Amino acid sequence: MPDYGHSIEFGYFLIPDAGDPDGVLQTARLADELGYDLLAVQDHPYQRAHLDALALLGVILAQTKRIRVFQDVGNLPLRPPATFAKAAATLDLLSGGRFEAGLGGGGFLDAAHAMGAPALTPGQGIDALEEAVEILRASWSDARAVRFEGRHYRLDGARIGPKPAHPIAIWLGAAKPRALALTGRVADGWAAPLMNYQPPAAAAEAQTIIDNAAREAGRDPSEIRRIYNLPGAFTAAAPAPASDTDEAIVGPPDHWAEVLTHLALDLGFGTFVLIAPPDPEMLRTFIEDVAARVRERVAAARA
Fold it and tell me: How many CB atoms lie under 10 A from the CB of residue 43?
């Protein structure tokens, strides 16, 4: 798997805990202060224990200065693309260009349907996702109105706008071949499943599907940013040498740095999102110790 040469970025996976809204915002502000590049929030509107992801990200953007945010990943069935496009552009404008669009076809279609979303099969969800990407791009363009006739969405001269502050990236959450191929054809990035669902060996196979689809569409695979969601813990020693079948990263900071450097150089990942409890010391160790080592080692290898 090639090194795509992406700049290395680091993020934190923030749980939108409705039981502790003040704590959620405090963690978001800490990530911003520590220098994280990204803040990721899962989007499960049917989960009663969760705050609404899009509304939460708006508040976070208002309380932070530099960190970028995205839904990891947004639930398309409950967020019609034309409406989502306007909300995303608004958040991007109000934050000075700090919103990116993570989007998925919806992993819990029955739960979404129970909240009023259309009843879709997984295959239909992928078709709708492809239509949505086209609508988003049109909505953020210079066009004054958009017409679109699809199987799942129809726009009849929709008055679009505003235009976002920067070109919002579309990062698709994908796990199965059809969604991975769609990512290769149309997306700006791939938000890979959590490492415990897709260890590095499986992620490498998924990367091949993305790359082949990109080439068939006349794209350079290096255009597509690769984002990996990484559960794990810091311990005094690693329980075993790192393996591409690992489902989490467990060990001291140097072990983490070794694994992430491998994922960047050999598997092509450019963004690493930490999944861990909101412990300030762990957040600090990841960004100040691990991230610093990874950036240094990747830069040295590329040089």
Answer: 27
